[in-house]
C-alpha cells in the first residue's frame, strides 16, 4: 500500500471517529457524563431529550469509544471511556472560541447576562488552597459532587444556597465552581453571595478540566 493510501486510511479513520461529535446533543451528553456516571434516564432529563433519543445518541458514542456502560437491574449507566475525551472537548471549545466570533458572542451572552463575574485563575486558587485562605463551593447537584469534587470543597447545590448561607464562613473569600466553562450555576451563586455581602469569585474550571490538568480530585 502506498504512503498516500496509508495516509488516506488513517485520516478516514479519524473522520469516522470525529463524526459522532458533529451533533450538539451528543456533545451535551458527553459534558454531563464527564461530571460522573449517570443513567440513561438521568441523562435524558439533563439534556431535555426523550429516553429513546438519548439512548440512540449514547449508542453512537459507545460504538466509537467515547463512553462505556454498565448495567444495574433494568438501568444502564454511562461513564466516560478510558480515553482523553475531556481533553478533546476542551480542545474543541478552545478552537471554536478562537475561530468563531459568533460562538464567543453566544458564550458571553449566555453566561454573563446576569452580571460580569470575576474569575479566579487556576494558579492563584492553588496558592490560596495551600494557604487555607479560601473556601471552595461546589454548587452542582449532590450526586455529581459525590462522584468527584475539588479537594476540600463544600457542596451546596444552587437551589439550596440561600437557605444554607450560614454554612459558609464570612471571613474567607468563597470560590464557586460548577460543571465547567459553559455552566452558569456558579455565576448565579457568586452574584447571590455578593448580594449577601460575601466576597466571592468564580472558577471557570469544572471537575473534568481540573482533573485533566493533573490535579487531585476527591470523592465521597
Automatic annotation (TrEMBL):
<dbReference type="InterPro" id="IPR011991">
    <property type="entry name" value="ArsR-like_HTH"/>
</dbReference>
<dbReference type="InterPro" id="IPR036388">
    <property type="entry name" value="WH-like_DNA-bd_sf"/>
</dbReference>
<dbReference type="InterPro" id="IPR001845">
    <property type="entry name" value="HTH_ArsR_DNA-bd_dom"/>
</dbReference>
<dbReference type="InterPro" id="IPR036873">
    <property type="entry name" value="Rhodanese-like_dom_sf"/>
</dbReference>
<dbReference type="GO" id="GO:0003700">
    <property type="term" value="F:DNA-binding transcription factor activity"/>
</dbReference>
<dbReference type="InterPro" id="IPR001307">
    <property type="entry name" value="Thiosulphate_STrfase_CS"/>
</dbReference>
<dbReference type="InterPro" id="IPR036390">
    <property type="entry name" value="WH_DNA-bd_sf"/>
</dbReference>
<feature type="domain" description="HTH arsR-type">
    <location>
        <begin position="6"/>
        <end position="100"/>
    </location>
</feature>
<dbReference type="Pfam" id="PF00581">
    <property type="entry name" value="Rhodanese"/>
</dbReference>
<dbReference type="InterPro" id="IPR001763">
    <property type="entry name" value="Rhodanese-like_dom"/>
</dbReference>
<dbReference type="InterPro" id="IPR050229">
    <property type="entry name" value="GlpE_sulfurtransferase"/>
</dbReference>
<protein>
    <submittedName>
        <fullName>ArsR family transcriptional regulator</fullName>
    </submittedName>
</protein>
<dbReference type="GO" id="GO:0004792">
    <property type="term" value="F:thiosulfate-cyanide sulfurtransferase activity"/>
</dbReference>
<dbReference type="Pfam" id="PF01022">
    <property type="entry name" value="HTH_5"/>
</dbReference>
<feature type="domain" description="Rhodanese">
    <location>
        <begin position="130"/>
        <end position="219"/>
    </location>
</feature>
